[in-house]
Amino acid sequence: MRTLLSLALSVFACVGASSLAHAEPEGDRISYAEKTVLVTGSTDGLGRALALALAADGAHVIVHGRNAERGQQVVEEITASGVGSATFIAADFASIQGVRDFADTIARDHPRLDLLVNNAGIAFNREQPRHESEDGHELQFAVNYLAGWVLVNKLRPSLAAAAPSRIINVASGAAHPIDFDDVMLEQPGAQARGYGQSKLAQITMTAAIAENFANDGITMISLHPASMMDTTMVRGLGGPIRSTVAEGRDTVMGLITAPSLQAGAYYRDGEVATPHAQAGDTQAQQKLVELSEELTGVSLD
Predict the structure, then answer these.
(1) Domain boundaries, position 290
(2) pLDDT tier at 42 (50, 70, 90 boundaries)?
């Protein structure tokens, strides 16, 4: 597996936008009319709002979720609007093989993919016990992070074929350093850091491999959409609602359609921001890439 030490993002955590590599050229806002996009976790909440917004722009949206009935409802709503189009593909991201099969289906049916939005996610509050995926991995790490690792790498040929294309990793301002000695949260009380760890993993992955993907004309960023949106997931945590889904949608769509993005950057409130320092640590990046390859069987090409 190639070393990451040569990547230009090694100082990512402590620099501003001007030093990040591969900024896209300035120009008009991007339209997704007649383009193909995939939004994971798009049967509810932010993902659903993004799917509808992209379809309203004329895109063909690949809707993803576990529940076929809800997925079909999104497809029918898009179809009834008369603008854009949609198909639904079910997949359970708690299974690495399920994610791999999902990616293979998309790659087969859509050899050109203009946009991938890794939005699917789950969260447990601090009082809940540790949960495992089908593969025995801590569930938040599996669904929120490992699934995205599989998708960006297995769908890379389709994204490269449609270049310039984009990957948007929907992360969070909630971040906890990855403990590489206990990634699966097996120590007592470790489950409390599960969500923040999985989200920082998304940001760290983006910083680690975005330069590599930029060589294929694929711009990858991570972002925080909005704090404590009024979604099923947030309501299930029992915390205070601080923002609407529409606010999160508008922030994410603003970046999806922005004429220029900084490859590898973390965005908050639509602007380049500084994430937790671990995201820019080249040793942590290297460890995370190696761990991701080991756990999923999917390598960084």
Answers:
(1) 8-16+31-296
(2) very high
Q: Which residues have a Cβ under 8 Å from the Cβ of 33 and sit 6 or more positions away?
A: 57, 58, 59
Q: Provide the 10 A C-beta neighbour count for residue 279.
A: 29
For the annotated catalytic residues, the residue numbers are: 195, 199
pLDDT tens digits, residue range 91-148?
999 999 999 999 999 999 999 999 999 999 988 877 778 999 999 999 999 999 999 9
Number of H helices, E strands in the chain: 10, 8
CATH number at residue 123: 3.40.50.720
Residue 1 lies in a domain: no
Residue 51 contacts residue 245 (beta carbons within 8 Å): no
Q: In whole angstroms, what is the distance from residue 275 CA to residue 205 CA?
A: 12
Cα distances from 168 to residues 15, 120, 223, in angstroms, run: 21, 12, 7
Of 168, 172, 117, 122, the residue nearest 142 (C-alpha): 122
For residue 164, cis peptide bond before it (omega within 30 degrees of 0) = yes
Separation of alpha carbons 159 and 149, rounded Å? 14
Q: Per the domain annotation, does 243 fall within a domain?
A: yes
According to DSSP, the residues that pair with 62 across neighbouring strands are 38, 87
Question: What tokens appear for 218 in the block?
Answer: 């694929």
Count of domains in the chain? 1
pLDDT of residue 244: 86
Mean pLDDT (the chain) is 89
Element housing 205 (H / E): helix 194-214
Distances (CA, A) of 188 to 7, 41, 130, 134: 36, 30, 10, 21
> Which percentage of the chain shows pLDDT scores above 90?
76
Cα separation, 226 vs 91, whole angstroms: 26
One-character DSSP codes across 127-194: TSPP-B-TTSSBHHIIIIIIHHHHHHHHTHHHHHHT-SEEEEEE--S------TTSTT--STTGGGGH
Q: What is the mean pLDDT of residues 270-283?
A: 96
